[in-house]
Amino acid sequence: MRVVLKFALLLSLWCTVRCCDDVLEDHLATKSPYRFVGNRNHSRLSFAGCEPSKAWMLIRHGTRYPSDDYVSAMQSRLPVMREIILSKENGIFRSDRDSLRKWKLDFGEEDAKKLTAEGANEMVEIAERMQSRLPEIFSHIYSNTSYNFKFTSTQRTKASAYYFAKGLFGKPTAKDVHFPEPLKQDPILRFYKLCNKWRKEVKHNPKAVKEATTFKAGPMVKKELTRIAKKLGVHEKNLSFDDAHYMYMTCAFETAWSRKKKSPWCAPFDVNSAKVFEYAEDLKYYWVDGYGHDITYKQACPAFGDMLGHLGDTTSPYPKATLYFTHSGTLLKMLSHLGLYRDERPLRHDNYDEHRLWRSSRIDAFATNIAFVSYKCGNEISLLALHQEHVVRLPSCPDSDLCPLSKVRSYYEESLNSCSFDDMCNNTNSNN
Ligand SMILES: *[C@@H]1O[C@H](CO)[C@@H](O)[C@H](O)[C@H]1NC(C)=O
Ligand SMILES: *[C@@H]1O[C@H](CO)[C@@H](O)[C@H](O)[C@H]1NC(C)=O
Ligand SMILES: *[C@@H]1O[C@H](CO)[C@@H](O)[C@H](O)[C@H]1NC(C)=O
Ligand SMILES: *[C@@H]1O[C@H](CO)[C@@H](O)[C@H](O)[C@H]1NC(C)=O
Q1: Strand spans (E) along 264-405
Q2: Where is the signal peptide (predicted)?
Q3: What's the CATH fold of domain 2-65+115-208+271-424?
């Protein structure tokens, strides 16, 4: 009996470390909750002969509610889908039918995009672990010379900053933390809002996402739609891509919101269909926020420069921690600027089967974060990079965790020396 128990324990431990099964929950794209990707090992991050000195973090807000157009689509389409599904005898199995019958959307348009309770938990927990890894930097005593918090002008990043502070200092102090008034257009936290070329040629250009559009209209998606329709017991002509996509997104959001409750909207999907919907999302983000177009990641140089400005400055030990609460668009462009998760071949509508590094479920979950930590090693400063709290190696130092500042500076020379944002973005004086 004890042996069996021990074995079960070991197995479950092994599964949480390196998960054995490929599961649906691992393919929810940018609406994945952080608990599936974050590193929960909060041991001290120490390197022989080196002392941690400062940190700079870029943090996507935690799990949020959908946007208002999504909320209204969910309110109008999901009950219709439910009627259709429940009217079919041979649809999805019984327990799911019951929870589908009882399902309701228990928030409204007024909650659109707001941080959820799970989003708050995510922030508290990341803060606690960062403090435990690097107590020299993330002191539990607050001072506004040590800490530099910033967020964008949105409720979800503001609330994320507050809960992060709560994780570091506790509730009474978190209320007194100095947060500067957010800028409407922040050139570091949300640089892309100021980049005309990117907005015109990528963000608002349907051609920029043609790979995703082609994929969505293609045979892989059609095959999955047919399978899903069959599972639901409806005719395939009565299942549009949009309706299937609302169900997939609701499955993702509801999985993110609650650690315990299972969303009935996940029932129509299995790993294979979730992977196909995930790929449609990955394609979109690759071409809008990732490697698809040069301007997308080149324009992240002001944020990269801000990081090196803080960590490379040896004239002052303050601020110890610079913490920026922002959005998926910033995190993805920064990852691409750094050269992380770069696939040899661009993602296209017809290379779904190739192994890829660019997986939004892993690299762009809610609360996604990149941290740079500077260490003083003798007379030299080295940087450690963390993504989702896991150590990642920068392309400037593929063979070591710590990367000397000199190497970072020479590898990213172009970013540091040729960062003329307004030129690359074709911003004219009139619309600056
Ligand atoms: C946790 O992280 C520490 C420091 O990085 C490492 O030495 C240790 O092996 C890790 N523990 C586990 C269980 O992975
Ligand atoms: C510290 O907080 C005060 C207000 O309490 C503010 O005026 C000052 O600018 C802050 N200093 C820094 C470095 O943020
Ligand atoms: C689609 O659904 C409508 C009503 O919801 C029904 O009248 C129609 O017959 C269905 N079409 C197919 C092809 O199942
Ligand atoms: C740059 O902006 C100007 C004026 O807005 C426009 O005429 C021109 O075509 C743009 N150039 C590029 C390369 O986008």
Answers
A1: 321-326, 369-377, 380-387, 390-392, 403-404
A2: 1-19
A3: Rossmann fold (3.40.50)
